[in-house]
Each structure stands twice: as C-alpha cells, then as structure tokens.
# Entry
Amino acid sequence: MLARLRRGAGKPADEVPDILALTVAAELAGPDAPDAPTRQETAAHHALTLYALHQQSRTKPMYRMGDSLGRALRRLLGQNEPSLPPDPITRRFQILITADSFNEFVHHARGAVQLLRGAQSNAIPLDYGRLADELVQWQTPGGAAHVRRKWARDFYRQYRPAPADTSPSDQTDDTDPEGN
# Structure
C-alpha cells in the first residue's frame, strides 16, 4: 500500500486510481460533494502520500503526534540557530512557507519530507494527521497565512534537546505549553 501511495506523491488527488479508496471517501467529501476533490480529500491525499515517502524502508514509525512540519524541520538544525545567509534547511523551510500556490507548496513539501527522511542519525517523524488538518486550512481563504505563521513559530523557536536515553517517539517537550 505504501508503494502505491508513493506513486501518488505530488500528483492531484484524483489522478492515481490505485489509492482512491484511501483518499476519496464519503467521510472526507460530505453528502453534497462537487465533482472535483474536496479540500479534505486533497489534504488526505497529500498527507498520506508524503507519509508513504517518509516511511519508505523504515522500521521506526515516521508518524509522531504533535510535531508540525515547522517543528520537524527545526529538529534537523538541532541546537543550531537558523542562519543568515540561510543554511540549506532554513532555505528549504523559507521556500516552503513562501509558496504562492497550494500546488507549489505540495511540491516543496515533498522535498522537505525527503530532508526529514534523510536525517543523518535517524529520520525525523512528523504528525501527518496534523499536516492533513493544516493542508485543509491552507486551502481556505486566509488559511495559508495562518499555517505559515504556525510553522514559522515552530521552526524559529529553540527547543531543549531530549535526554539521551529517551527514544525520539517518547520525547516530550515542556517548553511548548500547547504541546506542539
């Protein structure tokens, strides 16, 4: 199933017949759905296909509740501060959040997920349910700016490292009162 989902990465929500059963559903469309995919179907499609890219050949889960895309990319920097001129991770993040269209954003999100997947010591997980919700919001009027702001706050915020004996999936961060 993950291989089929990966083939849908970056493509429109209704273009890959193999995965329609996962991404086009009455629960996502509602009773009066138009012919085109709804915002929810589009968001589910992209979140699932990005997850499939991230999870490829990994035994450790690449899903972790609470970690936004901004925070996950921030983890790539570790304790380093975003720099000027931008380091490659900061540059990728800036390109991602300045995308002019949803399709451009999805294109850059794929590259961001590949960065997370390729992290040197361990791939960095992401909350794909949260990502799907944010992708729905991105598609609403004014929603892109709101999502960008949330991710920017998560990216530019300094986090304390987790204790060395804690696995990444068990980490909690008491520096963020919202649990983000």
Observations:
- The chain is about 50% helix and 0% strand.
- The two ends are 29 Å apart (CA to CA).
- The longest helix spans residues 39-55.
